[in-house]
Sequence to fold (413 residues):
Amino acid sequence: MLAIQQHNYTDTEQEILVSLPLSFEIPSRLFTLSPSDFANVLVSASKIVEFQKQTAFASLQDEYLQSQLNEKLGEKDQEMQLLRKQTERTLKAKDMELQEKQENLSKLSVDLEKLRAELETIRNTSSVLSEKRVEDIRSSKDNHIRDLKDLIGSKDKKIQELEGQLHEKQLSAGVSQKKGAVGEMFFQDLAMKTMGWNLTLISKDSHTTDLKYESNGIQALFEVKNYSHEVKHDQYKKFINDMNQHTEADIGFYISLKTGLPYYDDLTIEWTAAHQMLILVPNFQQFDSTLLFHQFGLYMEVARKVRHLVHVSQGDESSIEKIERATTYVQNMLKRIDKSKKEFDVVRKQLQSSVDTLRQQVESFFEAQLKEMNSTLAILGDDERTPASAETPDTLPNVAGEKKRRKPKKAND
Fold:
């Protein structure tokens, strides 16, 4: 019995001990051979055994390499599955983000369509008004130019309102614009269209207001707030500080375009210690801008004359007392003007078809009030005359920041 029991096999990674049961029985007839023939048979048998051994080793090596390959493929499959899951999560997040953007785009499209519809309605309304104006022009040649100007003004106002609405839509859609600059530009344009005033932008200067107006010896400062909520009272204190640092100004206007002011529910007149008139206007858009700007012009004229009288008094106590009494009287009279203006607003709404007549009445009223104020201010040169007792209070005019005010509303600035 010839047997080969084991063989050591070494590859590049490890040594493998292989036991091969290669045994077989030698036929008896082989013993009858000569020694040389028997030796040849043994050599052939050993070659056969060596071949079988190599074949077995090669098969084992293939199995080992196949197992290694399977392990590597398994690891790669796990990596591919992990990568596939990560890719799916990333794609899902991108899909959700894209869907959200599409929803936002749809909302913006809806808002744009509403805005276009409003624009079309306003255009149709303007067209109807234009036809009525044309009929009025044909009926009266003398009023042709004036009616045409009124029509243009009406269109400009409609366009301006539309621009305001468009601006609000743009802000809600995320258009990056500074509200303060927009409010200043809006007020500048409105002052130019209404009164022909060229307001200078000075908001970039330190310790000053937003806008300045100078004309005919009058210097006026304007602080314009374009907030979406009530303005904090700290902003009013800053305005007073700016006015105190610019004593060359005759009058200061503190205006909130769309929201209220703490302590002030309506247009209010105050005075600084330097006899500067202060006009506080909450919710500017609730007023008729044309009448309000004409009223601003009237305030400027009164403020200029008061400041002139203060200057020429040169510290004379009796003159200063008369100026303060006259100032109080002017303040009360301006309040009566404001009350009358509101009555005119009611009349104007009731008599929409008689705009020209109403405008003449308003102009006549303001001219009469201006003459009355000029007459009132003239008392400063006459020691014998004093303001009417029914309209003159016993106290001096309110100095800004000194009167007891109502508790302010809570506001988040």
Q: What stands out?
A: Residues 2-80 form one domain.
